[in-house]
Amino acid sequence: MIDSPNGFGRPHAHTLYPVPGQCPVCGEELHVTRLECGTCETGIDGHFALDRFSRLSAEHLAFLEVFIKNRGVIKDVEAELGISYPTVRARLDEAIRGLGFPATADDALRPSQVREERRQILEALRSKSISADEAASRLTALTARN
Fold first, then answer.
1. Where are the domains of the chain?
2. Which among 73, 60, 77 has a CA at the least distance from the CA of 18?
3. How far apart are the first and last CA of the chain?
4. Structure letter (DSSP) for residue 4
5. pLDDT value at position 6?
6. CA distance 84 to 117
7. Angle between helix 85-98 and 111-126 (nearest 10)
8. What is the pTM of this model?
9. Taking the chain (146 residues) in consecutive chunks of 10 residues, what is each chunk's mean pLDDT?
10. Inter-residue contact 84 to 128 (CB < 8 Å)
């Protein structure tokens, strides 16, 4: 279904927000049911799928931007974010899982890496650089890997 209101070319006064990929109530994947032109306000109703990246948290998206900007060079990602190799690897693995790809058997960390990663997650929570929900998610992912 397509509709086109009167007033073609009217400026759109709405602020554009990022599309949330998960329902804030139950956590399931959201589906887009309406698209609208910001200039003429023509609307298209239907059922549209979100891309895989819409499933990721803001923290995962920010990490992937840094990772891609640094062409996947982990030393450069470590330097830019001020985090260790195990933390870079863990965040990359979390993002991969968030995109819906399966984890592999070689994802398991050594006990010393697990301790270091857990310490860094708790430090990030203490310094308020991540939310409690994000810390819980990372700790759960860390536990699931080992």
1. 1-50, 54-145
2. 60
3. 49
4. -
5. 46
6. 9
7. 80
8. 0.53
9. 47 71 84 90 90 86 96 94 90 89 65 85 90 86 72
10. no
